[in-house]
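My main concern about presentation is that the manuscript never shows what a single data entry looks like. The format is easy to grasp once an entry is in front of the reader. For illustration, here is how one protein appears when written out as sequence plus structure tokens:
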Amino acid sequence: MSATDGPRGSFADHFGGVARGYASFRPTYPRALFDWLAEVAPSRSLAWDCATGSGQAAVDLAAGFARVIATDASAAQIAQATPHPRVEYRVATAEDSGIATGSVDLVAVAQALHWFDPGRFNAEARRVLVRGGVIAEWAYGLTRVDGDAVDALVQHYYSEVVGPWWPPERSHIETGYRDLAFPFTRLDAPPFTMAVDWNLGQLLGYLRTWSATARFTQARGFDPVLALGERLAPRWGPPAQVRRVSWPLALRAGRVDLPV
């Protein structure tokens, strides 16, 4: 996932400066999600991972599709993307992918829809999809960490420390994209869960990939995660101790209408 064209078509790269950490510390999506997407797609020839970031979803899509085109508007993100023989990485925006018309079985958007121009992206997705092709858009919300004292500090960091630095588009993640247009025939998707077991260093590395953390650091000149780490350390336990970190996963999926 990366920021791409905004409503006025100007690219705002919120993640280029943290691309290396993004590739190392972003959580992975559940295997069952990709299995389901491969099942509902009309064929498994080609998937488009739009706003791929460093390729987290693209590599998983490649397990179920013969070929994956993974695009991102951020060249820095593409430079950090995970290589895979069936994944072709390209620098391109969501609204102007350069992909051939009517060639894609699945369009996947992981944690990125809120950065797009909705009307232009929907038109582009409809253009590249085959008849009966599937579009799937998902996002994970606010991080939860096992342990009340630890979780309270993470929630405070999210809302109070870097809260003012979240781009306004972040609100769409908190509402699960319910307010964004979706002009496709909806598919009933099963529920999916997203969780990892992380030590303290991994959690702090993830928090540094937040766009709000990057904007705070750039504006204020220091890393706010350092202070949070000092507060978390005595509550976490031994540094190597792992805790369950989880996110609510919101998914909406649909199909381009089949001809009558």
